[in-house]
C-alpha cells in the first residue's frame, strides 16, 4: 500500500474505535439515568444483576472491538514505518505505536476496574 492508502486506513480505524464506544456509552447512560431517577429502587436482585450483566456484556464487546482495531492499527503503523519518503502525516502516524500501546493498556486497566466495581455493587445487593 502507498502512504495515502495507509493514512486513509488509519483514519477509518480511528473512526471505528470511536464508533465502538457508542454502544457502551449509551448503555451506561441509560442505566445511570434509570438509577438516578429511582427506577431500580426496590427491584429484585435478579433485575439488578441483569442490568449489571447487560452493562458488562456491552462494555466487554466494545473493548474487544477496540482491542482488535488497535492491533490492526499497530500493524498499519509498522507498514508506514517501512515507507522511506513520508509526508508529515505519515511521520506522525508512524510514531503513534507507543500511543496505541498506552491506549490499549489504559483500556485494560479501566475495564478491569469497572468489572471489579460492578462486582462490588452486585455483592452489596
Give a description of the structure.
- The chain is an all-alpha fold and 125 residues long.
- It has one domain (3-124).
- Helices cover 85% and strands 0% of the residues.
- It contains four helices and no strands.
- The protein has helices at residues 3-36, 45-81, 88-94, 97-124.
- It is elongated and about 65 Å long.
- It starts with a helix and ends with a helix.
- Assembly level: single chain
Total count of strands: 0
Helix tally? 4
Structural class of the helix and strand makeup? mainly alpha
Q: Averaging pLDDT over every residue, what do you get?
A: 84
Q: Key features?
A:
elongated; mainly alpha; 85% helix; single chain
Summarize the structure.
This protein has 125 residues and is mainly alpha-helical.
Sequence-ordered SSE layout with sheet pairings:
Blueprint: H1 3-36, H2 45-81, H3 88-94, H4 97-124
